[in-house]
Amino acid sequence: MKKRILTGDRPTGKLHLGHYVGSLKNRVALQHEYETYVLIADVQALTDNFERPEILKQNIREVALDYLAVGLDPNECAFVIQSQIPEIADLTIYYLNLVTVARLNRNPTVKAEMTQKGMGDEVPAGFLCYPVSQAADITAFDAHLVPVGDDQKPMIEQTREIVSKFNRLYGETLVTPEGLYTEQGRLPGTDGSAKMSKSLGNTIAISDDEETVNKKVMAMFTDPNRLTGREPGNVENNPVFAYHDAFNPNRARVEELKDLYRRGGENEKGKPLLGDVQVKRELANALNEFLEPMRARRAEFARDESYVWDVLRDGTQRGKARAAQTLEAVKYAMQVDYF
Ligand code: TRP
After folding, report:
1. Residues 6+ apart with CB under 8 A from 127
2. In b/e form, how buried is each residue of 286-303, taking b as 16+ CB within 10 angstroms?
3. Which residues line ligand 1 (CB under 6 A)?
4. Which of 148, 159, 175 to mutate to test the pocket of ligand 1 (most atoms within 8 A of CB)?
5. Pairwise CA distance, residues 323 & 242, whole Å
6. What is the mean pLDDT of the chain?
7. Dist. CA 121–CA 130, nearest whole Å
């Protein structure tokens, strides 16, 4: 029997290169080897967007199109909409008893988000508890493996704690999941900050067109201390080189660029040997080559409005069947099965 993967995304906008490096790439690679479910976590997205639920529907479609664009195959991999699986909400309620408020307050990712969103003392209970709902997402699908960006490590940790407590209290029922992170690490934002994130406005979307990519790359941060191309520059902590490493298939050229950049210097005409603009131009070309087939697939799938919703309906049905089995096992273990 195949082992299972569950992972997911909040439908708050189009997916970007950070999602690709952090998780999508692993999902595409593993979808044939594992029984794979990808969850479009609209209920989780509501925990910090409940005042504007109307953003969800369009974004669910965009995320599904991004999945198709990067090469997730809906026959191999079920695209599941979280809100349509009440079994997940059921599981969340049972798990909430296994977690303390103090523990939730210590979750570093939730803490960082609370600060970033300026929630102060006004943290919605649903938001504070979303890691528990995420544990329900993962366990509902009996997932062995969860490919995610490393910002999600604390969620996997909390899920493992909940599973361990559940199994201890009620008997071995739930699978203990493992996180799968990329060896490459996190992709920085175009502004050089540690994380690419829509709320920071430093993303390149998978669906960005060529002109947009060119513009964003030209505006990227590089080594702030290198004022002209004549000076030796830093390739570490330099997002332009982080992207070259992640997306430029011509490794030899990337090494050559790094070497020239580190050395600085000028040619016989007094021009810099390698200026930032050249490094960026080559990056924009590499990115556009990488994204072009995805854009083409996206456009193809977007043409038929009903196709995406058919894929989502079918995937959600498959997901619901799996989640229902888990809920049944959980209720049995807890002796909450009366009839
Ligand atoms: N928290 C994830 C994010 O912000 C999305 C998500 C929801 C998820 N449920 C999940 C990821 C289950 C992995 C597994 O991107």
Report:
1. 47, 48, 110, 113, 114, 119
2. bbbebbeebbeebeebbe
3. 6-10, 39, 41, 44, 134, 137-138, 146, 148, 152
4. 148
5. 39
6. 95
7. 17
**Residue of 39, 157, 181, 186 to test ligand 1 pocket, by largest number of atoms within 8 Å of CB:** 39
- The side-by-side arrangement of strands in the sheet containing 4-9 is 77-81, 35-40, 4-9, 145-147, 178-180
Task: Supply 142's token pair.
Answer: 């009996």
Report the DSSP beta bridge partners of residue 68: none
- The alpha carbon of 276 and the centre of ligand 1 are apart by a number of angstroms equal to 36
Per-residue pLDDT at 183 exceeds 80: no
Cα–Cα separations (whole angstroms), residue 54 to 11, 58, 60, 75, 119: 11, 8, 11, 29, 22
Task: Tokens for 314, please give them.
Answer: 């079918």
Question: Per-residue pLDDT averaged across 100-111, rounded?
Answer: 96
- 3-state class of 38 per DSSP? strand
Confirm if 13 and 207 have CB atoms less than 8 A apart. Answer: no
- Token pair of 13, please? 């906008």
What number is the average pLDDT over the span 284-308?
A: 97
Whether 330 contacts 163, CB under 8 Å = no
**34-54 mean pLDDT:** 96
At position 245, the amino acid (one-letter code) is D
Q: What is the pLDDT of residue 273?
A: 87
pLDDT given for residue 100 in this prediction: 97
Q: How far is the CA of 338 from the centre of ligand 1 (A)?
A: 33
Percent above pLDDT 70 for the chain: 100
Residue 10 CA, closest ligand 1 atom number: 5
Residue 324 CB neighbour total at 10 angstroms: 15
- Residue 27, pLDDT score: 96
